[in-house]
Structure prediction request, 598 residues.
Amino acid sequence: MFKKVCIIGCGLIGSSIARAIRKKNLSIKIVSCNRSDSTNKKVIELKIVDDSNSDIKKMVEGSDLIIIATPLSSYEDVILKIKNSLKSGSILTDVGSVKENVIGLIEKNISKDISWISSHPIAGTEESGPEAGLTELFENRWCILTPSKKANDKDIQVLKTFWKKIGCKVDIMDAKQHDYILSITSHIPHLIAYNIVNTTLNVQDKKESDVVKYSAGGLRDFTRIAASNPIMWRDIFIQNKKNMSEMIDNFIKNLKDLKEAIENDDGKKLEEIFTKTKKIRKEIVKAGQDVGKPDFGRK
Amino acid sequence: MFKKVCIIGCGLIGSSIARAIRKKNLSIKIVSCNRSDSTNKKVIELKIVDDSNSDIKKMVEGSDLIIIATPLSSYEDVILKIKNSLKSGSILTDVGSVKENVIGLIEKNISKDISWISSHPIAGTEESGPEAGLTELFENRWCILTPSKKANDKDIQVLKTFWKKIGCKVDIMDAKQHDYILSITSHIPHLIAYNIVNTTLNVQDKKESDVVKYSAGGLRDFTRIAASNPIMWRDIFIQNKKNMSEMIDNFIKNLKDLKEAIENDDGKKLEEIFTKTKKIRKEIVKAGQDVGKPDFGRK
Prediction:
């Protein structure tokens, strides 16, 4: 499908893409660029890529597909470094979780003969780094494409096919809608998970062992989400701050309503809300985005 | 171990206990009492119990161990009905998630020759009803005992052995401490999960299908928790309202701090908090309360 693919940032997502490209035979050559020499050494040793180097221009040169898989706050630095090394006719994409700001930033820095098509494969685990990557990470997951004005239709189709071959189902969406939907389905859940674990730690310094011991009552599930990459999430929240603020306000308003219902013994109201929330679970299982099997101890 | 065990309320937890008693051979006879005739019929058909009837006095009569496994709001009704049918020397327990209020309520209604020892096995799934029960639900989970003044030491040891044989690790704690710790490790996480799913539904009525489609980004995990039994959780929150209110206030205060940091681009503060929350995950895995294997699609 490609002669050379360059992955900038071979972490959990980047290395999972490299592994999937290799398995599905989608490129003759796969290279990556990482700032740290030890990571470059490691991804070659693990045979995740054919070559890897901190010299970003050298790695990007001659690539048909370039995938930015670094934290959002590094995009400006990355694009300024690679803009003059991109091959005419190549496709540039990323895997970031927020779109509106970065699409314009990159668009204004590249020439017309580069197709800049932003991607967001909605997949991940709480692990980080190239060793944590998984060939099958994208199987049956959605990938949202948000093409820029500098993307041509043919290349959008090529990139769509690429993600499908990697295992994804592909949707196309504009950046504003993407950032709004993802604030609901991903960014707010992560912030809330971080907040609940942080609240727990703050009130419970002396009893940390009890909190750990009895975490199977519900907290456990939040700690998994709150173990995700701190740098990545810091950047996502800041880049999507408008949607985050609005959703946090909604969340707090609803939580205060629940608090009032609890304090007033308003069981009827609580039961109504909890019955409503139960329904959406069934739809998620039906849509294949989770399994219906209960999770009772994960052994 | 016992001649007759009576389980009042053969739902997810009650039927799991019955199944485990049967498998480990802990009682000659197992009976249950359910308000609905169809449930009584079902648990006999499924061979979960030997007998089951809505006549609570008849079921309780002659039992050595009586386990209340109904929602907390039904305890008063239950105890008033069974108080004169309890066999002298029998052990009375429950499986409720809040202790302080109910311990006194039951204590004042029973005679001195009954050992009232409240139990809380910290286990469950998002499913409800007798068909959802699992023999192995309690394996490696903690069970907290909060004995009342009417419990004698010998019976505490007997009940401890019972839970251990069913698979639990057992701790003894006073009611106040139990309700505080559990508000952190279980009750607040559930309330927050209900609240996030409810907030999602409210803001997103027109885009429900998108929310479902892209739920693998994090929301999915909350919907599992928010699919738990509405009646049970309604009662838990109301019974533990003092701790809930305090924790909700802490939670909102911390969430407002995060919002401010996001709005001020304070990446340093966010990163510090998210790095701290990552640590507790490792301790939970180390304590055997979850597995370290990443969860990436549950197929």
User: Anything to note?
Assistant: The longest helix of chain A spans residues 175-203. The two ends of chain A are 40 Å apart (CA to CA). The first strand of chain A starts at residue 2 and ends at 8.
